[in-house]
Amino acid sequence: MAQPRISAYLPPDIDPTKAALAFGRRALPKLNEELQSAELLTQQRALMALCDLVHDPEKVYQAIALGFLASLKTLLVHQDQTVRQKTTEVLSIMALHSIGREGLIRSGVISALAGLLDDPVDICRKNTHQIFDMLAKLPEGLQVKATAVNDFHLLYDSTLPRIAGAQEEEFYLSSLSLAFRAQVAVNPTGPPRCLFLLRALPTSHGTAGRYRREGCRLAHSVDVSQKDLQRLSVLVPGAGGVLQAGLIPPLVLKMQTELDEIQELILGTLSNCLRVEVSEALAAGAVPVLKEKLSHPSTAIRSKAAWVLLEISSHAEGKIEVCKEEVIPVLVSLLEDTQPEVQVSSTGALMFALVTPQGRSSAMGAEAIPPLLTLVAEETSKARLNAIKTLTLLAELPEGRQTLLDHRDTFQRCLDDPSEAVQRAAEIAITVIDWKPSCSRDLF
Fold first, then answer.
1. pLDDT at 261
2. Closest-CA residue to 285 (of 334, 245, 327)
3. Which of residues 236, 267, 296 is at a domain's end?
4. Confidence label for 238 from pLDDT (cuts 50, 70 and 90)
5. What cellular-component terms does GO give this entry (predicted)?
6. What is the number of other CB atoms lying within 10 angstroms of the CB of residue 179?
7. What is the maximum span of the chain, computed from C-alpha positions, in angstroms?
């Protein structure tokens, strides 16, 4: 079904002419001065020019160093809607770069953006939620804090996001290496004592080892206690930054009133945040809201709502709430959805929710086995792996095992699946289905 799109075009009475850039290194400082101008048109033109410049990560780094974020935070509450629109657009483009996301979190922009959740202009709200969505994807890392003595301790402990390919990995790791070199350079009087820790990277692209060796050459090992590490380091969270700003309750509330396009962004933000901590969302009534969204006409919203429920169900208290709100029967009905992405998300959510006995009983009552077997039988189904694991959980119930014994051949065919994960899951499922109690009483 076609949905109206939020327009990013400026009002017809606004002069879109960009500000004339100064030459060379004077360009960004001049734009920063113009952003603080008392003349509205000057501010608008400066923002138009800045929108083009911040596509370059080098310009983003320079802009942060020059204090642009303080100027942009001030403009977020400007009375002119065009200024607010272009300011949020600049920040959303900066959030596309790792250095930009880190700068936004450090400068406290998240709290400033919270005031735009009720902005009357749709595009301002959309840009705001795009920023939240990007920041929530940022992995947690430990940044630098200088001590009172000349020694400089650096702890870098990062969990990399999913690496899509060698080029992305190369860019990410080279950024880390440059950041490390910059921090080493702060002590010109002598070699700094540094601790450089880099977790083993789950990668096959071959570049991680080179940067790890380079880090070892640059660093000097230091024996410090866990208490010292906490004192010498500063945690800069991604999703945690959104959680600390107290945005989860208002985001859950906005799910009920926002436009569909913005709801998709909110669901993306929630899925990353609730992976970390779920209590605030549960207290705000997130599960009933998400249950309602499972019946939304938009495929993207249904799929993302099921994925958020997956993240909620990965927590013990989340599993209890999902069962309490009777979400499992709705998820079972989505197994027959015509869209593959909805099937994948719903089977994933069921897989986590059915870990509890209450969840398995609810799924049996909703007759989840037939649609799950259908997904397992389809060799091209993207939800095949999740469906096998979900059926394995149901096979732990006597009635579930008895039903699945008649479909053992379906799992046997999965052993020929090209995916090793599917093969392993099928082997485990067959083992659970074939299990019989060792006591004299035969339950079958």
1. 95
2. 327
3. 236
4. low
5. radial spoke
6. 18
7. 89
Total domain count, the chain: 3
Residue 201, classed as helix, strand or coil, is coil
392-443 tens-digit pLDDT: 999 999 999 999 999 999 999 999 999 999 999 999 999 999 988 765 445 5
96 φ, ψ (degrees, to nearest 5): -75, -20
Tokens of 49: 């020019």
Q: Give the span between the Cα atoms of 287 and 324, in whole angstroms.
A: 10
Please give the full DSSP string across 75-93, using - where no structure is assigned: HTT-S-HHHHHHHHHHHHH
How far apart CA 36 and CA 42 sit, in angstroms, is 9
Tell me how long the chain is: 444
Rounded Cα gap, residues 175 and 180, in angstroms: 9
pLDDT at 204 over 70: no
% of the chain exceeding 70 in pLDDT = 71
More confident residue, 166 or 145: 166
Residue 314's domain comprises 278-434
Query: Whose structure tokens read 């006409």?
Result: 297
Q: CB under 8 Å to 180, separation ≥6 — which residues?
A: 154, 156, 196, 215, 218
Asked if 95 contacts 56 with a C-beta cutoff of 8 angstroms, the reply is no
36: phi then psi, degrees, rounded to nearest 5: -95, 10
In degrees and rounded to multiples of 5, residue 355 shows phi and psi of -65, -30
Do 80 and 15 touch, CB atoms closer than 8 A?
Answer: no
Which CATH number is 321's domain given? 1.25.10.10
Is the domain of 417 the same as that of 311? yes
Q: 19 in a domain, yes or no?
A: no
Residue 242, in any domain of the structure = no
SS3 category, 130: helix
Would residue 300 count as lying in a domain?
yes
What the block records as the tokens of 292 is 């309602």
Q: Where are the alpha helices (DSSP H) in 274-298?
A: 279-283, 286-293
pLDDT of 428: 95
Q: What is the pTM of this model?
A: 0.74
Q: Do the domain assignments include residue 8?
A: no
Assess contact for 307 and 267: CB atoms under 8 A.
yes
Contact 287, 279 (CB under 8 A): no
Residues 125 and 164 in one domain: no
What pLDDT sits at residue 182? 43
Q: Which residues contact 318 (CB under 8 A, 6 or more apart)?
A: 274, 278, 282, 287, 311, 312
Residue pLDDT, tens place only, 246-303: 899 999 999 999 999 999 999 999 999 998 889 999 999 999 999 999 999 999 999 9
* 425 and 304, same domain (yes or no): yes
